[in-house]
Inverse folding.
């Protein structure tokens, strides 16, 4: 029974951490250089194909990384099965909702043909 | 010298208490265990385990001034006084400094701490090259004193499910043995979110091992072996 994966989660945690680190650095570098950061520029960045894809990737990695981290904390400290299940369910749904929201926003924008 | 020692007798005490002792060490008393043995001649109700008195059997592991160690390897000089002695943290106390190691050894046995090899045994022993033998250094020396596991926060949180640094170091000892043919099964057993992956590389284990071994390094190698196995 592989309800809680062992090494796959561990590897994913590390891979997503690297992705997050890279995208954060890239984001910081992009935002700190170039023209002043106003709404126009934000919008342009977020709606360029590159920007949109990277933002979706960022939030997907964030969701996965957060999920594995919270799951680890729950496995360590929360031993009451019901409480653990409840916490994991809430956090799981929350993280999933965030990722879906980002994807939907992007999809809506591109479908809207802006 | 002054000592403060954790006392608990399950037959008479409801709660553990700390008892203070004054002791005048004699000329031959070099290590903490010598002092404890002398104390035992004064108060024979004081209970602790010991056997080899030279760091080989692993039975006198205890918490010495907040740090796990073997009493027989701890020099008296340089010990801050009062010397506070407690049983190994995270283990059920049987009496005074004696803890219940049942679970610890159950974890040890779970990793099958023996060579598994189904091929026909040769006429004499299974040979290893010097390089293959070299891989067991830093692993085979473990005396199962439990200083490491008892100092591992992950082991405190999940003592029943996380194998702990001692058991994992032993697991790696057999994984890296060229004469053992069960590497894949061993790795499959360890690929579990509790058994191996509760370790968070806090490295208390390596920091505290009285034999100078590095369980956290062994754990890292198991993880690498798992990644190699699955790629
Ligand atoms: S690894 Fe070191 S501390 Fe842990 S049981 Fe073995 S000898 Fe003791
Ligand atoms: S490195 Fe792992 S096994 Fe060692 S003390 Fe830390 S969590 Fe425990
Ligand atoms: S008495 Fe054997 S290790 Fe200390």
């Amino acid at each position: 029974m592989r309800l809680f994966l062992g090494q796959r989660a561990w590897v994913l945690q590390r891979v997503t951490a690297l992705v997050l680190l890279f995208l954060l650095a890239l984001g910081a570098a992009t935002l700190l250089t170039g023209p002043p950061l106003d709404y126009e520029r934000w919008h342009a960045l977020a709606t360029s194909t590159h920007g949109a894809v990277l933002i979706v990737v960022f939030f997907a990695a964030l969701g996965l990384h957060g999920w594995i981290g919270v799951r680890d904390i729950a496995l360590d400290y929360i031993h009451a099965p019901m409480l653990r299940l409840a916490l994991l369910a809430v956090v799981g749904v929350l993280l999933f909702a965030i990722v879906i929201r980002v994807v939907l926003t992007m999809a809506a924008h591109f479908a809207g043909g802006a | 010298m002054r000592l403060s020692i954790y006392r608990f007798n399950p037959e008479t005490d409801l709660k553990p208490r700390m008892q203070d002792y004054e002791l005048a060490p004699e000329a031959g008393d070099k290590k903490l265990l010598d002092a404890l043995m002398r104390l035992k001649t004064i108060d024979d109700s004081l209970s602790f385990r010991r056997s080899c008195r030279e760091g080989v059997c692993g039975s006198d592991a205890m918490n010495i001034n907040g740090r796990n160690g073997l009493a027989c390897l701890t020099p008296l000089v340089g010990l801050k006084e009062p010397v506070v002695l407690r049983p190994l943290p995270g283990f059920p106390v049987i009496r005074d400094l004696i803890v219940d190691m049942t679970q610890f050894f159950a974890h040890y046995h779970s990793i099958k701490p023996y060579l598994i090899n189904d091929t026909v045994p040769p006429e004499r022993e299974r040979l290893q090259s010097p390089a293959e033998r070299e891989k067991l250094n830093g692993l085979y020396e473990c005396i199962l004193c439990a200083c490491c596991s008892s100092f591992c926060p992950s082991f405190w949180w999940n003592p029943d499910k996380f194998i702990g640094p001692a058991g994992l170091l032993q697991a790696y000892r057999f994984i890296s043995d060229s004469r053992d043919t069960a590497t894949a099964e061993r790795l499959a057993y360890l690929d579990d979110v509790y058994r191996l992956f509760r370790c968070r590389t806090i490295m208390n284990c390596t920091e505290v091992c009285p034999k100078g071994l590095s369980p956290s390094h062994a754990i890292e190698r198991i993880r690498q072996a798992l990644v190699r196995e699955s790629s």
